[in-house]
Amino acid sequence: xxxFKYPTNYAPTSTISISPSLSYNFEFTMNxxxxxxxxxxxxxxxxxxxxxxxxLFEEIGEYIVENKEVKSxxxxxxxxx
Length: 81
Prior knowledge:
single chain, alpha+beta, two-stranded antiparallel sheet
């Protein structure tokens, strides 16, 4: 997966729209090159690149949630609706 090929504002097309939608704002640096990807995932695109990016974001999210330092943080008492 070449993460640098994704545009800054990523918006794959699909005939399936989803609501509520997730938003991703991802900034990364590799080999001294910084890039950003902003994606409001308001479609359930089956595009190959969309699937790869969605999987990457899910893996990163799982890594963060399972991190022992994150688990030791105080619990959030806010409610999201």
